[in-house]
Each structure stands twice: as structure tokens, then as C-alpha cells.
């Protein structure tokens, strides 16, 4: 033990002997020119290692450290035996193994560990072990006498030990200014296979003794209670829901867990604890569904419809998508409640190979040998028919003064964030009551934008009587290693006569094109992809899309939200890369190309009383 | 001790082995009547073994085993050794996939765990650092100004860059930066001691490859990046260098511990492999013989 604590102590000093980073975020908050100097950082807030049960049972090595190795640019071994390496290291990361099985599963196979001798250990090591494990876990909830869990004291002891290992790892890999790590875990509630999962992210290493898991409660409100208690005891933390698309309408409900209507207390508690939502990841994109947004031509993007592990059951779209939640939130507020759905956006992968497989040309699947080869991904696994619909997505973008825990957590907290499908498009989005038309041509325009307006994740400033319509500043820079940008769109949602309304405005077109004022659409820029080589048009699309946009349909009485969506020209989807590499026909059930994209957190307009 | 008893009571492998031992005992009792064999077999739990058991306990529970816990550990170790030997002698390990898999798993865990918790000596760490020094190289750093020509405009950025280069070179003295020239660049114009890794994130690899080849104190280009076309004027370059051990000691220790635990299983297996001749039957028989 002494050896070990010395080791830990020497890692910890690295993080603590850097006083210049203390309170970095409060500096940024006070001074607009400091805000203007903020940088875009790209990270991953949802990654699993072989210390998650589903990963380990699909062959992922039980080495949580691999996740840090991968995202700092080292090669690691995939369950299929091959080495995998990121195209580019990330700036920040949170390792979010399932709290319910956090580093337990491999111990059922370790004869030196007491978990080996439990009933569950016996089941797991049987000839059909990994399949029976899931059934056992479910039965253990319903009939704990016939299907005993390991003794609580043993579970707690193991969990405390493992939780400490996660804290040690986060410290060991934290390099302020270069690579930021967060202590984190996933609360994995899946009532009747309806996904309510949240990732819990801690600002520092002052964390509770053990995580709160879905074994403690399947009720998100109980999780928030626990988070608030942790906060009162000195932790700083937030939760980020994901895969709302697979929640069957439960992620963004209109009722509380007990069935009563959502009230002000619920809304405020939710917003204190869940300022962000993960809009895109491997298991699909949750922006909107074509049945909810039939007039949005881009609403069919990477939709995954079937519930987790229930591939014959469709998740109800209503209450399951981000845009719909934003609209519900406006309605709740209009009806005299407060808005529980005023969240910002990030993307992350949910990769279970201790990796973030977000590049189309080097996608290597989500979960060990469940989809660990091109053949399996193409549909070779009858147990798991949805692999082909999985996406090589996404990343979290933040605007922060520096690459430290304090600064990046601060950005998450104030929702100055954006999501991408794995590409590194940088996105800025500001709102005000009158940015100068030529503001974006000034070299110091970001200063002006911060001093005269608000950035993504905020409410528009109070409207004065002379203000007619809000104006927005839009800026997006392409990923130097990805395709050219095709168009910038603003998605507006509002409430009119009690009804939810939405509109997609193309606001900036590439290639000197202009949106049609009637249809609000850019003309086709003609960008092409060669499906055999995956080469794309080199001379179409833009490096930067920027401009000022004034809402042409503004009504001072209508609550509204505005968020930005940036589209690249089309590129090959990962399934097309794999088909070409192996000489296979293109698959007919997935599109051959995608338009990589980014979404900003919204800016809200709330009418004054 | 209770743990050991529970373990023995609940563990099917133990049931299996106990049954095997019984068979052996009966077998031995009867056969030895005829053979008149009378040799004592020894079970040794060495000091190293005892330390290992205590270390594993500490890893799991964060504290040393008490005297009674140690007694339980030793009792179960002795029992396990005896039953294991007898089972092997009976050939119970052959052909049973589950047992085989479990023995392998046990072996892996032993090696990984021990490897994880022994800190290397200074010398060991330093020699690891010397061997893998390339991994710790500090990337080259560049201080430069650039002029950007965007492909978003209607005119050819290459042609404009070439014209600008000719103009710059005709000046006396030649300016070292020209922030008002070219197109507005979406990021910075001036970069100070920027690492090649950071520049690659911002500009792409084409640009950093070209930058590495460029001369100092002279306008260079046109250079292509992921964002357009550039002319660059480099005023300082710090070449990539091998860091001092002290600068990267924490990283080295971290990597050493990681690599050793990764290698332990692999190496243990390779050690054993040398004791075996491996033959894979099939159309073309492959023979690995150490």
C-alpha cells in the first residue's frame, strides 16, 4: 500500500502545483476581451473501457487506462487483436464506465478475488455465461432471493477501491494546458430497455466516496438529489443525458417520475444538474426525427430507432429528441412553469473499446467483438442487427480560456459548447438586438460580439422597446483535415397560439450562393463524392462561413430558441469506406454518404412580462 | 477464514477437484497396498508465496491481512496446491474447456497484478527512458508570421500568393510580417513558439510538413494547408529535442507501469511457450518448436 500511495502522491503533485490555473474560468467571465481570446477545444465526455460489463464481456481488455492512452495519441489493442490509434489526440476526456459494473466483471473470473466465489461469478463463468449474465442481472432486481447479488459489503468495498483507481487515473493523465481529464461515470438506468442513461462529470477530485448508480435508484430525480447533496459537501458536478433517441419518450417527459405534471421545482432542479445533452454518438443522432420535423430535409440523419437490446421495438420519437424537448420546454414555461429543457449541446462517442471511433475512414466499431470486424458491422452478427446503423460520431466542443479542468468545466456549466459528428468544425454563435451589419469584417469582431451580445447557451439580453428583431452572428471554420463547409442553418422553434412551431433557415451558403428568401434554402452547390474512391469535390464549399442574420419572422410575444447547424459537403460514410476496402457492394439499408455537421447550443428569447 | 470456507463451499471447481481427489485417494489407498509405495509428497508455501498472498490481499482491501486472515489464506493456498496437483496428476485438466480457461485466467491475473504494484527503481526507470526516448521528444517549435490566401474568394489563391511573394522579396528591407496583406485569417497571423503538434491541429499535416522544410528569415511559400494557401516568415525555430529525464519522469513512470502490466501476461505466456512444442494439425501442419 505504501508503494502505491507514494505513486499516487507523486502523480497528484503534477495537478496541484500549478496555481496559475486556479479560478481561470472566473477571469474569463469578468472580462470581454479575455472571453474573445477563448479557444475551441475538442473532447470526449463519454467513453467506456473493459471495466464496463458490456465491454468486458465482448472481449475488451479490462484496462481503463487504455482510454487515456488512446485519446492522448497512443496505440492500444482492440478486442479483435489489431492495434488502433487516434488520427489526432483530444484536448479533454472523461472516462465514463458504467457505475453498476465498474471494474467488477473481470473480477468474477479472478480466483483471487472474493467475487469469484459468488453465485453471479458462477453463472458468468458457465458455458453461456455472458448471455446468462444479463438475464441474471435483471432477475436479481425482481427476485434477489433466488438470484442473489454479491453481498453489499463486498460490492461496496470493491466499488470504493475501483472508484479510487478512476480518480488516480484521471490525476495521472491530467496535464494542465495540454490534456484535461475529468473524474466521471455513467448512471445506467434502463427501465424496460428504455434508455435514461446519464454521464456524471466532476469538476475536480473532490468526489463522493462512491458513485450513485441505477442500482441505488432508476429515478433521475433521485440522481439529482444525490448530486445536490454531493455539491453541498464540496463536489462540483453535472449530468449529461445521452441517447434520448432510445428513451421511448422518457428522456424529455412532461411528467415527473411519479406521474405528476412537471412543476417549477422539477424544472429548476433539472437545470441545476443537467445543463447539457449529448445530441450525437455512435447509437445515433438525437437532434430530431423526420416524423417530428417533416419539413427539415436533414432530419433523417443517422437515426437509430430500435430500443437497446430490443431490436424489434421502436422508440417513440415524441419526448425522445432534442428539438422536441426545446419546444416542450418553451411550452412548459409559457404555461407558468419554468423551462426544464434549456440545455446546451455536446457530442461524444460512447465508444466501448476504450477508444473514440469518430472518423469515417477508420471506424472500428462500438463494442469489442459485438461489432469488431467489418463483416460483423455489415450485419454478420444475428444477435446484433443494428451495427450497420451505428455512426462514427461524435465530439464535444467548448470555448474556454485554457485547457484546464476549471476552464473547460466552466464552459460546460455555462453551456458555451457545441457538438460535432466527429469532425472538428469550430462554431461561434452570438445573439443580440443589433449587431452592426459589417461586424464580422472587423478583425476584433469577437470582442464586439461578447460586449454587445450573448454567446451560445444564453438568453438574449432584455429587449428594449426600440428593438425590433434579434440579430445573430454566425461563424464556422472547417476542420483542416475534413471536407469544406456547405451551409450554415439556424433552426428556430417558437410557440404560437399555444402550438409548437419550427423553421429551418439556411442563413449562409458556400460558394457565394444566397438563400432563396421564400424557401430559405441555399441552391445546391453541386459538391460530389466518388463512391468508389471516396474522393470529394475539392473546389466547392468554403473554409469559413460567417455572417449576420436577422430573424425575418420575429414576434415579440413568442418565446423562441435559435440554434446553429453547420453542414459539410457530403463525404463517404464509414460503411462505404469498408465496402470499398473489402471489394463489397454498398449496403442498401444505410446511406452511402453523410454530411458531417456541427450544432451550437441555442440562444433563447424569453418575452418580458 | 470465512471467506475461504465460503469459497470452498460455493466453488464448483473445488467440488470438482475434491471429487477428483477422492477418486485419487481411493485409488491410491488400494493401489499402494500392492505397490508398497510410501513416499511423502511435500507442499511448500515459500516466503515469496506468503508475501504474494499478502500483497494480493492488500491490493484488494487496502490493508495487510490480520493473523487469522493470513492463516486462512495459507490454509486455502495449501489446499489449493494439493488439490491442483492431484487433479493434474489425474489428468483432469485435459480436455475440459472450462477448467482450462480458468487456469489460464488465474495465471494471467497473477502476473498482471504483481506487475502493477511494484514500483521500478530509479535506474530501471532511467534505462527505460533511454530506450524509449523517442516517445518523449519535445516537438519542434516555430515562431512565425504568415499571410493567408483563402480559396473562398473568386481569384486563384496560389496566383495571389505568388504575386505577393514577388512583391515582398522586392522590398528593401523585406518586411518580417504583413498582417494587412492577403485575406483575413480565421485564427492568428502571428505564432510564437508554437509546437508542431498544435500547428498540425490548427493547419493540418500538409502545412506542418512544409513548415519543417522551410528556411528561416525569408518569406517561404506558397504553402498549402487544410485551410488555404500561405506565405510564411519564420523568425525562430527550436528543434525537436530529447527532454531531460527529470522533465518527463512522471510520464515515464506512468508509461513504464502501463507497459509492464501489458507485457507481463504476454511474457509469462512466451516463457511457458518455450517449454512446449506446439503442433497445429491441419492440411499444412505448422510446427512451432522452441
Topology:
The complex is a heterodimer of chains A (609) and B (290).
Chain A: H1 2-16, H2 24-30, H3 32-36, E1 39-47, H4 53-57, H5 65-71, E2 76-77, E3 83-84, E4 92-95, H6 119-125, H7 129-142, H8 152-173, E5 180-182, E6 184-187, E7 198-202, H9 220-232, E8 237-241, H10 264-273, E9 276-281, E10 284-285, E11 306-307, E12 310-314, H11 322-334, E13 344-347, H12 374-380, E14 395-400, H13 405-413, E15 417-420, E16 426-432, H14 445-452, E17 454-455, E18 471-477, E19 485-496, E20 499-509, E21 544-550, E22 560-568, E23 571-572, H15 574-582, E24 593-594, E25 597-600, E26 603-605
Parallel strand pairs in A: 1-4, 4-5, 9-13
Antiparallel strand pairs in A: 1-14, 2-3, 6-7, 7-8, 9-10, 11-12, 14-15, 15-25, 16-17, 16-18, 18-21, 19-20, 19-22, 22-25, 22-26, 23-24
Chain B: H1 2-10, H2 12-35, H3 47-61, H4 67-89, H5 97-117, H6 122-131, E1 141-149, H7 157-169, E2 190-195, H8 196-203, H9 205-213, E3 219-224, E4 229-238, H10 245-273, E5 277-280, E6 286-289
Antiparallel strand pairs in B: 1-2, 1-4, 3-4, 5-6
Helix pairs in contact in B: 1-4, 2-4, 5-10, 6-10, 8-9
Commentary on this structure:
The complex is a heterodimer of chains A (609) and B (290). By secondary structure, chain A is an alpha+beta fold. Chain A folds into 2 domains: 2-11 and 33-420, no CATH class; 441-605, no CATH class. Chain A contains 15 helices and 26 strands. In chain A, strands 1, 4, 5, 14, 15, 19, 20, 22, 25 and 26 form a 10-stranded mixed sheet that branches. A 4-stranded antiparallel sheet of chain A has the order 17-16-18-21, covered by helices on one side. In chain A, strand 9 and strand 10 form a beta hairpin. With 290 residues, chain B is α+β, with helices and mostly antiparallel strands. Among the domains of chain B are: 2-94, no CATH class; 138-238, Chitinase A, domain 3, CATH 3.10.50. Chain B is 56% helix and 13% strand. Chain B has 10 helices and 6 strands. Chain B has helices at residues 2-10, 12-35, 47-61, 67-89, 97-117, 122-131, 157-169, 196-203, 205-213, 245-273, and strands at 141-149, 190-195, 219-224, 229-238, 277-280, 286-289. In chain B, the strands form 2 sheets. Chain B has a 4-stranded antiparallel sheet with strand order 2-1-4-3. In chain B, strand 5 (277-280) and strand 6 (286-289) form a beta hairpin. In chain B, helix 1 packs parallel to helix 4, helix 2 crosses helix 4 (67-89) and helix 5 (97-117) packs antiparallel against helix 10 (245-273). Chain B is elongated and about 95 Å long. Chain B starts with a helix and ends with a strand. In chain B, 18% of the residues are buried. The chains are: A alpha+beta (609), B alpha+beta (290). Chains A and B meet through helix 1, helix 6 and helix 8 of A and helix 1, helix 3, helix 5, helix 8 and helix 10 of B.
